[in-house]
Amino acid sequence: MTSNTSAARTGGISRRSMLKGTAGALALTGGLPALLAACGGSSSGGGGSSGGGGDGGSVDGKTSIGSNYSDAAVKSAFADVVKGYSRAKNVTVNATDHNSFQNNIQNYLQGTPNDVFCWFSGNRAQFFAAQGLLEPIDDVWAKIGANFTDAVKNASKGQDGKYYLVPWVNYPWVMFYKKSVFSQHGYQVPATWDDLMTLCAKMKSDGFANPIAIGQKDGWPAMGTFDIINMRMNGYQFHVDLMAHKQSWTDAKVKNVFKQWAELTQYYTPGGTGRTWQEAVQIFDANKTSPMIFQGTDQVGPQVAKANLADLDFFPFPQIDSAYPTDSGIDAPIDGFLMSKKVKNRAAAAAFLEYLGSAQAEQTFLKPNPSDIGTATDYDTSTYTALQKKSVEIIKSTKNLAQFLDRDTRPDFAYPIVQNALNQFLNNPKSYSSVCSSLESQAKGIFT
Amino acid sequence: MSTGQLVGRPADQPAGPRRRRRLSRLTRRDKIVLALMLGIPALIEVCLIWGPAIATVFYSFTDAHSVAPVHWVGGQNYTFMRKIDPQFWPAVRHNLIWLLVFTVIATPLGMALAVLLDRGIRGSRIYQSIFFLPVMLSLALIGIIWQVVYSPQFGLINGVLGKTSPNDAIDWLGNPHLNLWAVLVEATWRQAGYVMVLYLAGLKAVDPTLGEAAALDGASEWQTFWRVTFPTLRPINTVVIVVTVIESLRAFDLVYVTNGGTDGLELISAMITTYITGPANRIGYGSALGVVLLVISLVPITFFLIQQFRKEKR
Amino acid sequence: MTVIAPDKPDEAAAEVDAADRAGWRPRAGVPSNVFILVLAVLWLLPLLWTVYTSLRPESDTNVHGYFSLAHSLTFRNYSDAWTQGSMPTYFWNSVKITVPAVLITLFIASCVAFVVSRFNSTFNLVMLLLFTAGNLLPQQALLAPLFKIFINVHLPSWLSSSGEMYDSIFGLIAINVAFQTGFCVFVLSNFMRTIPTEVTEAAMMDGASIWTQYWRITLPLCRPALAALATLLTTWIYNDFFWALSLMSTGDKRPITSAINDLKGQFAQNNNLLSAGALIIAVPTLMVYLCLQRQFVAGLTLGSTKG
Predict the structure, then answer these.
(1) Is residue C297 included in any domain, yes or no?
(2) Tens of pLDDT, residues A91-128
(3) How far is CA A182 from the centre of its chain?
(4) Whole-model pTM?
(5) Interface confidence (ipTM) of the complex
(6) A111 in contact with B at a CB cutoff of 8 Å?
(7) Other CB atoms closer than 10 Å to residue C26's CB: what's the count?
(8) Of A349, A365, A392, which residue is a domain's last?
(9) Number of folded domains in chain A?
(10) B190 → chain C, closest CA residue
(11) CATH topology for B77-313?
(12) CA torsion A382→A386→A387→A392, rounded to 10°?
């Protein structure tokens, strides 16, 4: 076997020439940045290299928007919205698949985001604002502020009190039912928890095997039920504090929420954790086993067969504690638009946002949409369906609008931690105590 | 063209598959070419494979998120993993079960198929093709195909069992007590064919005279196989062991396509993907999980490399 | 994926053919035949069911249920899946990734194999082992740093539409090349060892440079191994699910296999469409399987009998 020295003599690759070759190759491929990136840590968030905020630009210049409206119907509706803008030809729409957009938002913002992008209100926006990834838009709000209620205004601010979000559309989370089924069996809309229990028991005896449909496969639908029961039992403020981990998940109040919820789960369709919410809505729509479903109007409306839409109705989740009546809190997540810190043409982007903050833009978007409602107060409600009118009423009359668990808390807590915890609870409602301890210990690790 | 000087040819050139190559002095240009030929690929590997493998270890001691600044947190991720994360130990358990099923069911099944088919059953070529077919398909695709088969109301299995009504249906992939086993059936469906092909190749090369001699000496079929044939399959066995272990650690596509690796189908690989590419973007924690996977994988990899090293040295 | 040393592809391929083996091995009895037959039928059932479901129109299955005799058959599901699922886009993405990746991998792996097999030294042996090990690592273990690298490396726009390695075809080709190179190096270096030295030494005596030796002499002799590897690589890279899933965010840019998740969501309610879509995706690998099975199996098993 040749030794190293003889290898060199006989022309084998010596280490020196190998290193020389590597150095040569390095220079060739410019792999240095990759190596550095691998060795070093990430750059701090915000303050990117290309175009910081406040980079002037003209109002008539080009701007772009990153949109997650990927399904055909909303995609074309949004295209119409853009067309309705006076400077439409300057706006490029960059549409990405809905789920991918959400999953990769952090990379998107750190990389080369569009000037404006679709996002949601709540902690999720505040999280980015705190990271310095968003551009405050108080100037835009100076122009559009009159159009929105105080509740919506509050939902559009960051923790520093500045405005970051331009609100768009929202919708409530409510308990759906079919009018015909209720009238056929003489059911009444339940006003309290006890009424709801009685109703479910009656439904069961009337042959509805599982009064409430549920599809938790995507991980978030059950969060809505947690939110509302928490708000009904402990109030909106406790709920918001819990979402920010200012309260503990092992607090007796939280355990009581699960305990109470466990009384309801016996009426759920079995196998909820393995069923998509779309399937759950189908089961609800079939009118055979499950006459009720607790879901957002945004999801149920499009899934129900057109013929059944007229039959569709809803009621707010019933009262549990008289201290927190039904108008004290509801999940009504607001979709909106944010401006990224790396905006290339702030003036044009701000002008576009002003347009988006108008009732006219919302009106164009919601034309084909039978379920969502606009947030602008001067929206022409005559174009609404019965369902939408009722949504407006319920949101208007509710004092506090929560944004839904996965938008009210940190995203790395909602997914997969809360998702898995809720799955565990649904698979075994009696295990709520260990679910709570697990949530608390994980929360401690996340909320530093 | 180079003008390298030639030194005299070596007198002894050993025959056989391994020949010592004594070469004349190479020109400078040749040496550069050689260095590039080895260096550029090595650079690619460093940047994209070996470098990340090492970097994973470093990241696992940080709280790296996609966007936020990176902080050193020591063993915090590992503590979280061990003590707090309710998914981790189930995932480890599932990975071990996966390995067990592969070792005890899939591999022996593949072996048995190979042995049977090697006996010249009529149409064995067709049988080979049938058993090998799943190996050609992407695992993600296999997940979809079986999802159609396992569908609670519309699938083949429940159809045969007559349990397709909503309240009666067995939810093979949704029920956390059943779904791991359902997915393992899918994995075995593929793995057995793979092992079968490897063994078939090995069995072809077995010297028939050995078996003949054994048979003449009165050995039964079973004895002949185990005492005579099997030992000569040693190199194949090495490969099959490595393949079995590696494939079971690689299990990802099936569970991810089925339900994203949750609710009964937790696996370390799926957890890593969820934490890093999902909304959480917890790169530090995902790296810690990656280190666990890496360390476990190093066992069969080292085993294989040592075997190879020994073989090369001979 | 295996890491078996290849020897001579054609021989091994012929050996794998077990059609008529006379010889000492006793003929399998009836029980064995029955067992194999039953197992083979069971083995095919999932695919047959998928094909059957895909050929039935939704109207039929809605009325009569899925577990029933078809009242009508149609190819409509295939055309629907093709158009609704934007399959041409995804397939084209697959081509854009697979073809360059296979070619580049074979090229650089053969370079490394050439160096490593020609010049024996501990260093080269270590390199060989490192390359081989690279292919055995689980992909997910590498994800975190790769993710960071990909989002931090900026590329000019002609190379990547997203401006970075993340979410770019270039990035995917790069990672596939890096990941598959190890196995190919292993296979090719073992194969090259079997080429007699006289050939290259004669060339060297004629003053051929290293590059000429590699390109004009060694590489053509490796054609069988290269063919086998090309078959394997094409199948593996086409079938890869993970890399594009995690390193590409835009659904439209994904290759077909990684787009399965999106398709699954889109066709969720319709098993007929889903089956048809799945089978369409399987077509390329099935074609390889039917036409090139020999090469594929040869690539997997070459030299596995080497002691």
Answers:
(1) no
(2) 988 887 777 687 778 777 877 788 999 999 988 888 88
(3) 32
(4) 0.82
(5) 0.84
(6) no
(7) 12
(8) A392
(9) 2
(10) C43
(11) MetI-like fold (1.10.3720)
(12) 40
